[in-house]
Amino acid sequence: MKVEHYGWGAGMKAEAGIKFPISTDISGKKVLIVDDITDTGETLRLSVDYVQSLKPAEIRTAVLQHKTCSSFVPDFYGQKIIRWRWIIYPWARYEDLAGFTEKILGNETFDVSRIRSEFKDRYSLEVGEKELLEILQDLAERKEIERVEIDKLVEWRKRKKDNS
Ligand SMILES: O=P(O)(O)OC[C@H]1O[C@H](OP(=O)(O)OP(=O)(O)O)[C@H](O)[C@@H]1O
């Protein structure tokens, strides 16, 4: 099952939605729903409601990290997070950094070193030049941003929507 609640870089969608439903019969089974984190709790709430509709015998929920602001409290968690912060997992690093890169660019045109210093100032994140360049090139291929040369200096900016 895949449930999505966030877009790139912590951008919350209006509500969590089931992207890929369960394609096997789980009626009468004991089900453990596992996720990395609870934030608002909407993902697990929706997941439990959905799994419940498939008539399992029991449902339990488990996450690695549980934020106490979550309205849904899982049955099991590895760590409780009291002070809210956005957590970047290795498996979501690219997606999170790409989203933050777009936020940093906003309506500005920045070179790589400026983007890196914005990462440090705004998010306390050290992003390597090579990693950032890969992200910038990918975003440019997706036509989200564009590379411009100003006085022989390479800079990056968001593409205007009517530009695509
Ligand atoms: O408690 P919530 O506020 O709903 O947030 C927690 C959910 O958000 C993230 O998933 P995301 O929507 O980013 O999908 P992904 O795991 O596919 O990146 C995370 O992996 C949890 O599933």
- The termini sit apart by 33 Å
Spatial order of the strands forming the largest sheet? 3-4-5
Please tell me what the overall shape is. Answer: elongated
Q: How many distinct beta strands? A: 8
Keywords: Glycosyltransferase, Transferase
EC number: 2.4.2.22
GO molecular function: xanthine phosphoribosyltransferase activity
Enzyme class: transferase
Could you list some keywords that capture this structure?
single chain; alpha/beta; Rossmann fold; Arc Repressor Mutant, subunit A; 2 domains; 3-stranded parallel β-sheet; 4 helices; 32% strand; binds 1-O-pyrophosphono-5-O-phosphono-alpha-D-ribofuranose; PRTase_dom
How would you describe this protein?
InterPro entries: PRTase-like (IPR029057), PRTase_dom (IPR000836). It holds the Pfam family Pribosyltran. Keywords: Glycosyltransferase, Transferase. This is Xanthine-guanine phosphoribosyltransferase. By secondary structure, the protein is of the alpha/beta class. The protein has four helices and eight strands. The strands form three sheets. The chain has a three-stranded parallel beta sheet with strand order 3-4-5, with helices on one face. α2 packs across α4. The site of 1-O-pyrophosphono-5-O-phosphono-alpha-D-ribofuranose has 15 residues, from β1, β3 and α1.
A few lines on this structure:
The protein has 164 residues and is of the alpha/beta class.
Question: Which SSEs are present, and which pair or pack?
Answer:
Elements: E1 2-6, E2 12-20, E3 30-38, H1 42-52, E4 58-67, E5 76-81, H2 93-105, E6 109-110, H3 112-123, H4 129-141, E7 145-150, E8 153-158
Parallel strand pairs: 3-4, 4-5
Antiparallel strand pairs: 1-2, 6-8, 7-8
Helix pairs in contact: 2-4
The structure holds 1-O-pyrophosphono-5-O-phosphono-alpha-D-ribofuranose.
1-O-pyrophosphono-5-O-phosphono-alpha-D-ribofuranose binds next to strand 1, strand 3 and helix 1.
